[in-house]
Amino acid sequence: MELFKLLAARRSVRQYTEEPVSRKALEKIVAAGLMAPSSKNLHSTELLVVEDRSVVKAMARCKPHFAQMLEQAPATIVVMGRLDSHAWVEDASAALMAMMLQATELGLGSCWVQVRHMTAEKRGADGQCLSSHQYLAALLELPEGVEVEAILALGHGVKKQRPRTLEEARPERVHWGKI
After folding, report:
1. Which residues pair with 51 in a beta bridge?
2. Tens of pLDDT along 94-131?
3. What dihedral angle (degrees, nearest 10) is formed by the CA atoms of 118, 124, 127, 128?
4. CA distance 121 to 61
5. For residue 38, which phi and psi values (nearest 5 degrees)?
6. How are beta strands 109-114 and 75-82 bridged, if at all?
7. Is the model's pTM score more than 0.90?
């Protein structure tokens, strides 16, 4: 598919059917993430594919709102960055975008669930709410030295969405020469 058409077709999908995402599709999506640009070629992004529905449902509690679609998602990819890289956030974001485009090309729906700087409802021993990363680190037994940027929810969308138009992308945000 032509890149512009692929970008227009990529929409945030928050409702999924029960149909699982094939291992072949997941492997292709992860490969797209691995092929994303990386600052100084450091490859600071780490990916964790989670298909266990009970674990995915528990992941939905990583923040109080806007993670509910994970309860329906047949698969997710937890996108993390190694903290020893100065550009782990940018690297992880590029990987997320590459994986969302690959999912779209495969006819799958996806949605970026932001984790970094978010807070979970669960409280720690000190009575304070855990960060979304702390909640996920405990749930998924993540190693030290990485931080979760986001979770990519994946699945077969319940309904087909129309491609976005350029007008909907608000082209008035583009300035030439000066603002």
Report:
1. none
2. 999 999 999 999 999 999 999 999 999 889 899 999 99
3. -20
4. 7
5. -140, 130
6. unpaired
7. yes
